[in-house]
Design goal:
There is one protein chain. With 426 residues, the protein is an alpha+beta fold. The chain folds into 2 domains: 20-161, 2-Layer Sandwich (60s Ribosomal Protein L30, Chain: A), CATH 3.30.1330; 169-419, 2-methylcitrate dehydratase PrpD (Orthogonal Bundle), CATH 1.10.4100. It is 54% helix and 9% strand. It has helices spanning 4-17, 25-41, 54-60, 74-84, 102-111, 178-187, 190-213, 220-227, 232-248, 262-278, 283-302, 312-327, 332-346, 358-377, 393-407, 409-419, and strands at residues 20-21, 47-52, 113-117, 126-132, 137-143, 149-154, 157-161, 255-256. The chain has a 6-stranded mixed sheet. A two-stranded antiparallel ribbon has the order 1-8. A hairpin with a 2-residue loop joins strand 6 and strand 7. Helix 2 (25-41) crosses helix 4 (74-84) and helix 10 (262-278) packs across helix 14 (358-377). The longest helix has 24 residues, at 190-213. The chain starts with a helix and ends in a 7-residue tail after the last helix. The model has no long low-confidence stretch (mean pLDDT 94).
Length: 426
């Protein structure tokens, strides 16, 4: 039986992780650090230095920044944070920018003296903004997670020093286990999770519907609906892809994230919501299924880390498949087999940064989750010894984490080398 202590931790994990963000979270994190550094400086800066890890470049260089009139990239994220960022809003830091400030953002991109550095010796998730005025200097550094400010200084005086220890990413999420997640979902008091899950439903379905209505990126969601005979499986994939279509291409609607990612938040939730609504299931059942999908996504991502060469949509697609298995009345065995089958299908998808094609990867990740579920309900499965599949669901999760976190580290470096052939100042 799940202990009261673990129950409380699982509730806290959901509340801490399922938070709103506007725009792709890596450029938004740059904007947040910039806005915070400007507040610490206390006056208008005349120049600055932005030091970011290569993985931040990978995920920030090609996406449209909200409220900027369609501009993309690292400089745009910095400029938006400098001109109109509200650090109190954290990952909704750009929510108060209005159209009158877009010209100023463009001017900062063109005229402000900003040096962008990509140090070799830094954390995989690392952003440091240093701003200079005529008389003062201020620095803010974020590491490991998108709003995790670890260092602040002004004029050489350290105001905050909370640098993380090596490999200190996981926190309470290391206590996530599939068996406990299912028990938690079965027994959770809905009032403990309803506020955060209702917000996830409202926000993520709104941006999915926006992506289906209007022209964003490659319109993957709309292509799916127009190219196939619509059924609940196609609809689930299309809605999830459409949310990413909109989010990656400048839509200013907020998203409730998972594992620090809006795309993963969309993928883990929207297919489950589509299934629950399509089957006319009670809202309580949907909430419990979202506990399953979100927590399993977080469980899978914990050993991988925030950023890697392994596409995070894979973990979220698996989480969605598990949530749908739960919606259909499945228990531990059904969810575990769905999870292992799905991981065995598409754990090779690479992350080559945030951009329009993420929507297509989301569609395929959701498909893998659904195929994994269908295999199980048709009496088929992948067995221990089939590639990296191990005996026991937790052992398979550990193996995939090891492959993604350690085994694919050189792959990640090669992807970044290829991407950095282009100018990071774009």
């Amino acid at each position: 039986m799940i202990t009261a202590e673990k129950y409380a931790k699982y509730v806290k994990i959901l509340k801490d992780e399922l938070v709103p963000a506007m725009g792709c979270t890596e450029p938004i994190s740059i904007a947040y650090a910039t806005a915070k550094a400007k507040r610490v400086l206390g006056e208008e800066p005349v120049s600055g230095v932005l030091a970011v890890s290569a993985n931040i470049v990978k995920n920030a260089k090609s996406v449209t920044v909200p409220h900027t009139g369609g501009m993309k990239g690292i400089k745009t994220a910095f400029a938006a944070g400098l001109v109109g960022g509200d650090p109190d809003a954290e990952l909704e830091v750009l929510s108060r920018i209005d159209e009158s400030q877009i010209c100023e953002i463009k001017a900062v991109c063109e005229l402000f003296k900003l040096d962008i550095d990509v140090p070799e010796s830094c954390d995989i998730f690392d952003i440091c903004v240093t701003l200079y005025s005529e008389k003062h200097v201020a620095s803010v550094r974020i590491m490991r997670e998108h709003t995790n400010v670890v260092f602040i200084s002004r004029d050489g005086v350290v105001l905050l020093d909370n640098m993380p220890k090596a490999d200190s990413y996981s926190g309470d999420k290391t206590e996530l286990l599939v068996k406990d997640i299912l028990e938690f979902a079965d027994t959770v008091e809905i009032s403990d999770v309803e506020p955060v899950l209702k917000r996830q439903i409202d926000y993520n379905m709104a941006i999915a519907e926006e992506g289906l209505k209007n022209d964003y990126g490659a319109n993957v969601g709309r292509v799916l609906l127009h190219s196939y005979q619509p059924d609940i499986k196609i609809t689930a994939r299309a809605y999830a892809a459409a949310g990413s279509d909109a989010r990656m291409n400048g839509c200013d609607l907020p998203v409730v994230i998972n594992s620090g990612s809006g795309n993963q938040g969309i993928t883990a939730s929207v297919p489950v919501i589509v299934y629950a609504r399509g089957m006319n299931l009670p809202t309580e059942k949907l909430y419990r299924a979202l506990c399953v999908s979100n927590l399993i996504t977080l469980h899978l991502k914990t050993g991988i880390g925030t950023l890697s060469a392994y596409c995070g949509a894979v973990s979220a697609g698996v989480g969605a498949g598990c949530g749908i298995a739960y919606l259909l009345g499945g228990g531990y065995r059904d969810v575990a087999h769905t999870l292992v089958n799905a991981l065995a299908i598409d754990s090779g998808i690479l992350c080559d940064g945030a951009k329009a094609s993420c929507a297509a990867k989301i569609a395929m990740a959701v498909e893998a989750g659904l195929v994994g579920l269908s295999m199980h309900y048709n009496g088929k499965q992948f067995y221990a010894g089939d590639g990296f599949v191990k005996k026991g669901v937790e052992n398979t999760i550990k193996t995939v984490s090891q492959i993604a976190h350690k085994g694919m580290s050189e792959t990640d470096r090669e992807i970044i080398r290829i991407m950095l052939d282009e100018d990071v100042n774009a």
